[in-house]
Design a protein that fits this description.
Helix content is 35%, strand content 29%. It has 147 residues and is α+β, with helices and mostly antiparallel strands.
């Protein structure tokens, strides 16, 4: 059970969230025939960030809305990525922090053995800081979970 070097799902999700070029975004996932989506969210509430990512993944067909294990997998990947951007605090508004984020969700099989099944990677990049324009800093989080 080895990861394929060119199939590093977390790397692809991170590259996808960091690029502004739409054609480059398409190239990142099309080369592997993986599913992906991306979007933006800004909030002082963690649950709104989670909801925005889940909604985009469902609307873009990355996960099936009526299959619990897919929603559950996505939730854990999102929480792991959020944990990274919030430095383990998992809260925003209650500690007077606001975020302006971009996210990318990638679904695919990163292993040589196809029976390992599909995985989800969620990358979140943007700014976090006090709710005063100009007093934020960059942040990046990544979460990966099996389906």
């Amino acid at each position: 059970m080895a990861l394929k070097k060119e199939h590093r799902i977390g790397r692809h999700a991170t590259l996808l969230v960091l690029t502004d070029d739409r054609s480059e975004q398409e190239q990142i996932t099309n080369q592997l025939n993986w599913k992906s989506c991306s979007g933006k969210v800004g909030s002082m509430e963690s649950q709104k960030v989670v909801a925005a990512i889940e909604t985009a993944a469902k609307q873009q067909g990355i996960i099936k809305d009526n299959v619990y294990r897919e929603t559950h997998s996505l939730y854990h990947a999102i929480m792991e990525a959020l944990y990274g951007i919030t430095r383990g605090q998992m809260q925003l508004g209650s500690v007077m922090r606001t975020v302006g984020l971009r996210f990318a969700v990638v679904r695919g099989n990163p292993y040589e053995d196809e029976t390992e099944g599909e995985w989800l990677a969620v990358a979140i990049y943007g700014t976090i800081g006090a709710p005063i324009k100009g007093l934020e800093h960059e942040t990046l989080g990544l979460g990966i979970n099996h389906i």
